[in-house]
Each structure stands twice: as C-alpha cells, then as structure tokens.
What we know:
460 residues; alpha+beta; rod-shaped
Amino acid sequence: MPTLPKRPRPLSLAARAALATGFALAAFLGLTGLAQNKANYASELSAMHDRLHNYVIAYITGTDITRAGKVTTPDSQPNPDFSRPGSGLYAIIVGNDGFRWESASALGRDFDFVRMLEPGQTSFEPVETRSGRLYVFSYGVSLDSTEKRSVPLTFAVAQTEDQFERQVATYRRTQFLWLAMLGMMLMLLQLFLLRWSLLPLRRVSSDLAHIERGSRDHLDGPYPVELTVLTRRLNAFIDSEREQRTRYRDTLADLAHSLKTPLAVIRSQLESSPDGAQLREDLVDQVRRMDELVAYQLSRAATSGRQTFASAVALAGHAEDLVQSLEKVYAAKNVLCEFEIDEGAAFPGEQGDLLELMGNLVENAFKWAQHRVLLTARTVGKGNGRSGLLLIVEDDGPGIADDKVQRVLQRGVRGDERVQGHGIGLSIVQDIVKAYQGEMQVDRSEELGGARFTVRIPPG
C-alpha cells in the first residue's frame, strides 16, 4: 500500500504574522520608493528646466544688436562648462539670414535640430542625437537695435542626459539605502511587537504543559480579555474530563456495591429456602434487579444529575420492594421497618437515582439497627410543577458520633471495620444529593436513639 506523503507542518502564528507583515512592509516601502522616485524625477526635470531657462535669460541679457543690426554675443558665460568643449552643457543662438552662434563647449557637435521659434515661444524637450540624448530648452525672442530695428533670435541651451541620470541615480541609491535601513528597523520592531503580543498565548501553552505534568490544576494566570473565554472553556473542559474519569472510577465501585444486596439475597435464599418455585421466583427477581443496576450505573457513568424534564418517581412502591429485599438479607436480626410516607410523595428525578439513594440509606440503617428502622418521606415545596422531597431514615443502633460524621461519609471508609461492606454507600448518597442540588444532614434520632439521615431534595 503506497504511503501517503507527509503533510508539511503548518507555520506558527508568529511566522505567519511575520511573513504577512514582511510582505505588507515590502509592498509599502516599494510603493513609497516608487512614488518618491517619480516625484524626484519630476523634481529634477523641473529643476533642470529652470536652470536651463536661467542660462537662456543670462544669454539674452548679454546679447546686443548694433546700429547696423549685427548681433554681438556675450563675452562672459553664465557657467564655466559653456567654455569647456564636451562638458555636456551647450548654448546655441540662431537667427535669420543664416546667423548661428555656438558656445565653445559645442565645438565639433551637431545642433542642426535647433529651429527658429516665434518671439515669446518656448520649448523644452528631449532630443535624440548621435552622441546621446539631450534636454533642450529653446526661447524665441525679438531684440531691438538702437535704430528700432527688430532682430528675431532663438536662444537654446542643451544639457546631456548623463548628468541628469547621475543625479537621479544618486538619489535612488541614497533612497534605497535609507529605505532598506528603515525596513530592517521596522521588521525588528515588528518581531519584538509580535513576540510581546503573542506572549499570553505562550503563557497559556506553558500553563497547559504544567497541567499535563501535574504541577498545576487549572489555567489560573492573568490573561488578556481576548483569551479569557478560551481559558475559561479550557478549564471547564479540564474539570469535565477529571469529573468524567472520577465518575467512571466511582461507577465501578458503585456497581460492585449495588450488586452486593441482590447477591446477598440470592445467597440467603439458596441457603434457607426449601421451596424450589419460590426460590426460582426470588432468583429471577434479584437477577432482574441486578440487570437494572448494571444499566443504571452505566448510564450514570455518562451522565449524572437532575434532568429538567424527567418524570417524578412515586416513592411508596419502591420503598416496600426495597424493604422486603432487605428483610430477607437481614432476617436473622428480625428488624422491623416502619413507614411514614405522605400520599403522593415522589422523587423529582430518575428512578435509578432514587433506588440508589433510598437503598443505601435504608440498607445502612438495617445494618446498624438493633430492631427498628423508620423511613419517613414528605412532600416539600413546589417548582416547575413538581414537588421536592424530604427523606428521613432513622434506626435504633449506636448512632454516629459528631466528630466521625465527615469521616464516615468519605468514600471507602466504614464506620466499623468489623462490619462487612465497601464503605462507599454513603458517599454514593452524597454524590446523588449533590447532583440534585440537595443537602444531607447526619445527626442522632430523637425517637429511636440511633443515627438519623435527613435528605432534602429541592423541587425540580
């Protein structure tokens, strides 16, 4: 069977944020550099236009027309480069009748592209020549002689592209250097901010590792508001998992404890009943009860507690069946169980919970009683259409000392190690009472003198 290719490991949040920020920053700086380059190019071109225009004005100012209409060119140059051949800065004056003047820098150059312009007309444009591109500013004027004779002339100043491109390239190199430095600084700052921003997530991860190692119970650190819901739900999940494990573990013990009474009844019947038909009937009844107990404990392992729409369970019939079974188990003690059950008294919950609750309390009373047990059930309050329940079980046994009540209610603890049992019956009662938001009180019976267990289940 061909093996599936291993899926690449997803990038971390920090890496994703760093990459996204890096791409965004690169795009931003790139667009910024492009905009600045275009702005600088336009600025340099405008500066060259103004510079060439000033040179032309300087030549116009230094040019005179004699009385005879002859053009006299200026003796001084507005820039020394005009006197240096091949400097890249050239001046040309053209007029009618073939007049043409060129600066010393234009020696050996071909400037046939300079044409006459109308007076007041200007032109600024790049021109391709055999020696490269030139930027040419031309200005058409009409100069008057002393005889009021007008002489039309066109002044042109040209500059090679090389000088302009060098200025633009210098700016680009400087700009790139500064943008690169700025980008590096911003990336370092962004990484620092990311590390600081993701610190709460790393703290959550570290706290979870502590929980896995058992050195901490919950996520209890100070977290930002955005993580509070997450950590609260994680804590709830952790509590739920722990409760589930505890419930599964306790269910096994509860199941063993619940099966103890039916097994005792079966053993008692096998040892004492001579009637085969009655024996078979009793065995079938106890096997049925054991099957119900197993089903109940398995369902209780998955869900426990009050269910809002569960029907109330009548108490009287279940109490009579329970007492009849226990009288068979404890027949040697000749215990009399009395009932004081209100008419209509019902348990506002599941039948299995009622049988566990009442069964453990009554069996505990039978176990410690000398001769009498009193079972009292009263209806209390009303809520959501159902009544609550007050259940009292008393016996005439030795009772429980006040300083031993909490210890006896602990799982696995027996009031007297000499008495047979698992020590979990009363802890099961506590679990059920807690699941129904009820309360249980243990004290001494005023009427019988032994232990009295009072359970209050609020209305459903």
